[in-house]
Specification:
single chain; 151 residues; Multidrug-efflux Transporter Regulator, Chain: A, Domain 2; two-stranded antiparallel ribbon; 7 helices
Length: 151
């Protein structure tokens, strides 16, 4: 079953929703428990019954997660999406905060890259591992000594 069937109002089981969205069943259940998607109705046989609103909510959450937005912020965005006449300043602020988190992570990754590059320079040729400068530095660090990547 694809997204088109769900868009026509067809009810789906959790496996069908998973297939339609590419989101694992366990993740769907996790999002339900976290309050990011509404709890589904139950069919007489006890199975969960999902519809178009679940598909839309799950697509929204999935897109936000792809942007690495924290779940608490996704919850806030979902709440704000239900208030169509509110000023979107809160949304802008939330995205600005996410941009800052991403920038901080980029700086951290640049520092990590520099440390690894310095470490990699300790072993430029092929030789036995007992002569490997990289392993020597890592073993020294494991013993609490200074290493080239963490001066």
């Amino acid at each position: 079953m694809g997204v088109r069937e769900a868009d026509r109002g067809m009810k789906m089981k959790i496996g069908d929703l998973s297939k339609a969205t590419g989101v694992e069943v366990g993740t769907i259940r996790f999002y339900e428990r976290a309050g990011l998607i509404d709890l589904p109705d139950r069919m007489p046989n006890g199975y969960r019954s999902y519809g178009p609103r679940h598909l839309e909510s799950l697509a929204f959450v999935r897109h936000c997660r792809a942007l690495d937005i924290p779940m608490a912020d996704i919850r806030r965005l979902l709440d704000l999406a239900t208030l169509p006449t509110e000023d979107c300043g809160n949304v802008n602020e939330l995205v600005d905060e996410q941009i800052e988190r991403v920038r901080a992570r980029i700086e951290s990754l640049k520092a990590l890259e520099k440390q690894l590059t310095v470490l990699r320079a300790k072993c430029t040729d092929h030789h036995q591992t007992n002569e490997c400068g990289i392993l020597s530095e890592l073993v020294s660090a494991a013993h609490g000594e200074a290493c080239v990547c963490h001066p």
